[in-house]
Amino acid sequence: MFRALLTVGLCLLASSSVVAGASDGRLDIYFIDVEGGAATLLVTPAGESLLIDSGYPDNGGRDRDRILDVIKNVAKLDHLDHAAVSHWHLDHFGNHAALADKIKIKNFWDRGIPESLAEDNKFGERIALYRAATQNQSKPLTAGVSHTLETPSQPLGIKVITASGEVIPNDGPANPFASQHKPQADDPSDNAKSVSLLFTFGKFRFLTCGDLTWNTEAKLMTPNNPIGQIDLFMATHHGRQDSNNPVMVLAIDPHVVVSCNGPMKGAAPETIATLKQVKSLQAMYQLHRNVELADHAQAPAENIANSVETANCKGVWIKASVAKDGASYTVQVGADGKPRTFQTR
């Protein structure tokens, strides 16, 4: 995926002062609560780190500080090797510049910066901060690009599945759910141009698609399934109903789903209904309880990281940790949560 990333990664390993994860050989994935935005941190067994998205800015530095807490105090890192942006909405790139002011970020990745954004009349001002933080040296992510990161246990494979509205070729077996696609109104927003990433670690497979929307999901997944089945899925677009097209969700058939939702954003009943149709689903997790839904209509209480509204929220994270052989993984809610073990396919 990341061009020349293997070379960069090996240099980083030699110079890194903190090698998180090397002692147990596990791949760690942290879903950080940014109140309905997105911030996902991966730490390889070699201690190499990748943050995808960075939540909302402002709010007294709330999301920035939650991300820094996980980076520094939970993952025990003293820098970020890579920071990626899935798309150009404020709840996804809002803190990249603020984080760069607090901690060293060695490489920035995105789908390319547009001249303007119709849905954001302050985009020019906001993107100027990102440009300054990256010194206009961010690296491009394009559909179909892949790479392998070497680690002491399993290599980590990364493939860009979608970017800038483009999708990988529709190769693979026929998608048995293709006929379930019911087109929605065209989405001209940057959501439809989201970067989607597929990670592989041994047999373990993790998919995250930013805020990719309904029709682009269908473009990716019909008539064939070029992704196959996966183990862990981050519900797309915070679990909103204008994403998570059954044509994709049922075809990838995840064992575990995590929704990076807020108390009143995402984890929509339509998406939950789709997830409940997934044949192989073993567990649903949410960063927040959806305060507009009954308890029985969403993830079980023990699988929800934060149950109160924003004002009193503690920002508890969810962590997935993959065994060094890639054959199993655990998911837990917060530092005190009991890890639950799942077997990969």
Total domain units: 1
CATH topology: Metallo-beta-lactamase, Chain A
What is the β-strand count? Answer: 18
Distance between the termini: 23 Å
Can you identify the CATH class? Alpha Beta
The quaternary organization reads as single chain
How large is the count of helical segments? Answer: 8
The spatial strand order of the largest sheet comes to 6-5-4-3-2-1-16-17-18
Alpha carbon gyration radius: 18 Å
SSE pattern, N- to C-terminal: HEEEHEHHEHEEEEEEHEHEHEEEEE
Unreliable stretches (pLDDT < 50, length at least 5) are: 1-19
Mean pLDDT: 93
Q: What structural category arises from helix and sheet content?
A: alpha/beta
Main β sheet profile: 9 strands, mixed
Task: Classify the beta-strand content into a percent band.
Answer: 15-25%
Helix share, percent: 10-25%
Account of the protein in words:
This protein has one domain (about 5-320): Metallo-beta-lactamase, Chain A, CATH 3.60.15. About 20% of the residues lie in helices and about 25% in strands. The protein is built from eight helices and 18 strands. Strand 13 (about 255-260), helix 8 (about 270-275) and strand 14 form a beta-alpha-beta unit. The radius of gyration is 18 Å and the shape is globular. The model is unreliable at about 1-20 (pLDDT under 50).
Write a concise synopsis of the structure shown.
By secondary structure, the protein is an alpha/beta fold.
